[in-house]
Design goal:
This protein has 19 helices and 8 strands. It has about 475 residues and is an alpha+beta fold. It folds into 3 domains: about 100 residues, Gyrase A, domain 2; about 130 residues, no CATH class; about 180 residues, no CATH class. Helix 12 runs antiparallel to helix 17. InterPro entries: Glu_permease_IIB (IPR036878), PTrfase_EIIB_Cys (IPR018113), PTS_EIIC (IPR003352), PTS_EIIC_1 (IPR013013), PTS_IIB_1 (IPR001996), PTS_Sugar-Specific_Components (IPR050558). One of its GO terms (molecular function) is protein-phosphocysteine-trehalose phosphotransferase system transporter activity.
Length: about 475
């Protein structure tokens, strides 16, 4: 798709959703433009879905989501430029308040979606390093002792170790406050001297005479020490409070000293508040969430794997899978491993397999091309929206086949108690992320994704579906 085509697609989409005046905010993920519209009754879904560059339309989580596939970033860049140009000519009216549930889901998506590419890249590097280490061990070579391994392994860990800094940036954007000051708060929590102070549970620490809370707790046979490195919830609470404080200070302090006074007072208030109250609350909330998740998985990893593997693709349809990401990130922070995305991997490969079944079964050449591309995208890099919206959901029966086989694949992983040592989007490129905890678990992971992929392809081919014209043909007939 050329730059001119992307520009034309962006112009068409913007016009169909009601123009710049109707757009409160727009973001994007791997495959979707995510609009927050002031009036969602303006766009007509059928017209938008037939626009150039558009695969489908989804209304979920208080957002109007336009699925564009792999072209989304180029279209988004053109769209952002047009919105800046049009909004510079005058201020838009204040939008109406949305339901609290929609606003929460929207903010969760805004906070975590920008981090996904970096997390995916880290998982890819981690998986490749694991594969290389296991392969070279057979020849008596200790790859982990080499400088290259140390450097690349450090690069794969940075996004997790300094998670409070990255989350501070995205939270500041979501909550509309000073991003640099938010990052200062996040960096303060992982500053080496601060981290050593927090982890020294034998010595009391105070700030302005208030006690800095520290703790250590038992996890299995090991002891986990209170630390803000890799943490998720504490910094979200901190920046949420910082945004409210910043707005209040901005109204209160005269403009002549606002540039220095507001950031200074923010830091003096928010950092002690975080260390004394918000941070500990966030840590314990995270531990509570982790306890509930571990309890569910402890009851039956087979059932947990089946539920996640079967329903993850359904969550993707509504964009609700973004709300589950903090669970996996928190799992890595608390336990150093995660299985949420392992089970979600069964869903990803099942969607790819169902798309492959469509490719093999359909007599429509255009639909075959769409399905083949979608199957490749889902199975290699774990991006499933082209498969879901391009063919599976549209044809209905392939989506049902994907849900069934994803659940079976997830259950197989649950039987093997599969874990990964990184938070990685599931695809062929990241499979070795799940080899870090032994070849037995890795074999169950491979069996799970293999069952999901080939099972969904075979089931879709056998069950069949009612042939429909491909999206491109529908558009040409208009």
């Amino acid at each position: 798709m050329s730059n001119m085509d992307k520009r034309r697609a962006a112009e068409t989409i913007l016009k169909l959703v009601g123009g710049a005046d109707n757009v409160e905010e727009v973001t994007h993920c791997f495959t979707r433009l995510r609009f927050v519209l002031k009036d969602e009754s303006i766009p007509r879904d059928e017209e938008v879905s037939r626009a150039e560059g558009v695969i489908s339309v989804v209304r979920a989580g208080g957002q109007y989501q336009v699925v564009c596939g792999t072209k989304v970033q180029g279209i988004y860049q053109e769209l952002e430029e047009m919105l800046r140009e049009k909004r510079s000519r005058g201020a838009a009216p204040t939008p109406p308040r949305r339901p609290i549930g929609d606003r929460i889901l929207q903010k969760v998506a805004e906070i975590f979606t920008p981090l996904i590419p970096a997390i995916a890249a880290s998982g890819l590097i981690k998986g490749l390093l694991t594969a290389a280490r296991l392969l070279l061990e057979r020849y008596g070579i200790d790859l982990a002792a080499t400088d290259t391994y140390v450097i690349l392994n450090a690069a794969s860990q940075v996004i997790f170790y300094f998670m409070p800094i990255f989350l501070a940036m995205t939270c500041a954007k979501a909550f509309r406050c000073n991003r640099v000051m938010a990052m200062v708060v996040g960096a303060s929590l992982v500053y080496p001297q601060m981290d050593a102070l927090i982890q020294n549970t034998e010595q009391a620490t105070t700030v302005f005479g208030l006690p800095v809370l520290k703790n250590a707790w038992q996890i299995g046979s090991s002891v986990k020490v209170f630390s803000y490195t890799e943490s998720v919830i504490p910094i979200i609470l901190a920046i949420l409070c910082m945004a409210a404080l910043e707005r209040w200070l901005t109204r209160l302090i005269p403009e002549i000293v606002r540039l220095i006074a507001v950031p200074g007072l923010e830091l003096l208030v928010i950092l002690p508040l975080t260390l004394v109250v918000l941070g500990p609350v966030g840590i314990y909330v995270g531990n509570g969430i982790q306890y509930l998740y571990d309890t569910m998985m402890g009851f039956s990893t087979v059932l947990g794997g089946a539920l996640v593997g079967g329903l993850w693709g359904v969550c993707v349809i509504f964009g609700a899978h973004r709300a589950l990401l903090p669970i996996g990130l928190n799992d890595v922070a608390v336990n150093g491993r995660q299985n949420l995305l392992a089970f979600a991997g069964a869903a990803n490969f099942a969607q790819g397999g169902a798309a492959l079944g469509v490719c093999l079964k359909t007599g429509n050449r255009e639909l075959r091309q769409i399905a083949a591309s979608a199957a490749l995208t889902a199975s290699v890099v774990g991006v499933t929206e082209p498969a879901i919206y391009g063919c599976n959901l549209r044809l209905k029966k392939p989506m049902v086949c994907a849900v069934i086989c994803g659940a079976v694949g997830g259950a197989i992983m649950g039987i093997g108690n599969v874990y990964g040592d990184a938070f990685a989007n599931n695809g062929v490129l990241t499979v070795f992320t799940y080899a870090a905890y032994g070849m037995t678990r890795f074999a169950f992971y491979l069996a799970g994704i293999g069952t999901a992929f080939f099972g969904a392809a075979a089931l879709t081919y056998l069950v069949g579906f009612e042939e429909l014209p491909a999206p491109g043909r529908e558009q040409n007939e208009e």
